[in-house]
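Task card 7
Instruction: Convert sequence to structure tokens.
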Amino acid sequence: MPSNRSNMTPRPYDDYGPESWQDNDAAFEGVDFFEGDIESTLTMPRIPVDIRPMEPVEPQAPEPEPESDDDAKRTGLRVPDWRLCLILAAQIALAVRLLSSNGASLEEATFLTTGHAELAHWLDGAARPEYVSQFFGISAVSPLLAAVADNFGGLTGARLLSLGYLLTATAFLWGTARRLHSEVAAFAGCAAFVALSSTQTLAGTATNDAMGLALLAASAYLAVRTGQSERRWLLWLIPCAVLLTLVGAVRYASVLWIPFVFLLVFAAAIGRGHRGAALLRTVTLVIVSAVPAGAGYVLGTKPGGAGLSALEKAITVGRPGETLVNDVRTLVGWVLLLAVIGLIAALLRSEGSSFLTGLVCCAAALVVPATQFLIGTPMSLIRQVGFGAWFACIALGYLIHVLAHVMITAKEARVVGIIITCGVLLLCAGGVMAQSKQFMQSWPDTRDVASTINPYVHRGSDRYLAEGNGVLPYDLREKSSPKQWHDTRGFKYHDPDLDKKLTGEQAYAAAVRDQYFSVIVLNGQITPAVDAKIVDTITLCKNSCGYRMAANLPYRGGRYTVWINEEAAK
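Output:
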């Protein structure tokens, strides 16, 4: 049976195989090897080939080169990574232990009282408070949201809102570090940021710092996206400009880090090879951000408005240089040290874009001493230092990235990076956790005092004197108004017997003799001289004044004494 060559499977030709004489029989049929010239006789027969014209092929663009394993992970916040989820879970655990460790601080109480007043204005048309005297910020959104959370969950609810802001800041730190460097850098930077006592404190206190840091982190992430985008960079630039405006409105001190967000745009654009567009994008962001910021400044400096003069006044309040350096070293010294080492590593490796990014981040971290001139208390320092530390953790992450990639493969680098990070954090964990816990207990706990005087406090015309003020009006806001409370740091009283207006210690003494205050709460810490004068007056006129000591409550570092005038409190 003749073979069907079209159905044969192609095989390599073998000169000595059976194919050389069996499969080609049909091809040689009818050929006379002894007729004709020798060349035609020796010519091998041609095997028929189906030759058809090929269809025209359109030219196609070359396929892009595959991304490296690390580059494939630099996709921002598209898909939550399990390592990011693990870090966020650890952050929640570290913050939750602080939520109920103490009552409200004076700054928390002032912030939340302002929020409740703003909420009352929106709901009932009540007069707004004067924001200049309340806190360093002109935005009404931050205290209002905190007041809403306070209505639902009390002080713990307001602090949980701050925790939500800090979780947001950590997530944006992950996206920023991953886009600038790698997944290893993102993990290390976020882990270090979560381990800071400043981060834990921000997440455990109800202030406008937490919202300010979250907005700053979001704007920094958008700035990196603006610099790295090929064509749609304006889509990232516009929301970045809006957030930068809100950063300054929520917290005045936050404006010190806005220039570094501008520089991140330039550094990110240079890193992607957009050298010609780097300056253009940076200048465009500055201009677009300046328009709403300028409008906010004009609005804030109107008479009776939330003028920025509060910032100018606060800048004169500072701390001794040696004390400030020691505090910064204790709070974030190890992060700053590792960030600077990461900057040196980028310089030695001749990675220009990483060096430029690290330089921006380290400079932003060193703004903390300058910020302290705006905030005059240690309580504010431990929170404000977290703004610069957020940037420093990016440079720290790059250092771990470099260490993990030395002489090992990319996959092994992830494991090594996690091991290095965990090792560093374990060395610092004990001291950091104790540090944040100690800070949360650095102010008097007024919860027992509020419970003691609660039966004697009523909304109306009664007046109450509390040393430090602020906190007890917040604790008892449901039963009194802020106007009913007075402080021991300044008071004017018109003596009806002398028909004269008194100030200072004499004013307090006359008011006590006339049973002007229904409740008096002293702790001897803020105004000891005034406290002594009040106690002496109560002792001298014990029978005629009608005050009795209702409680003597200890707290960490002091003691509260509560005096009740039952006749005046009726």
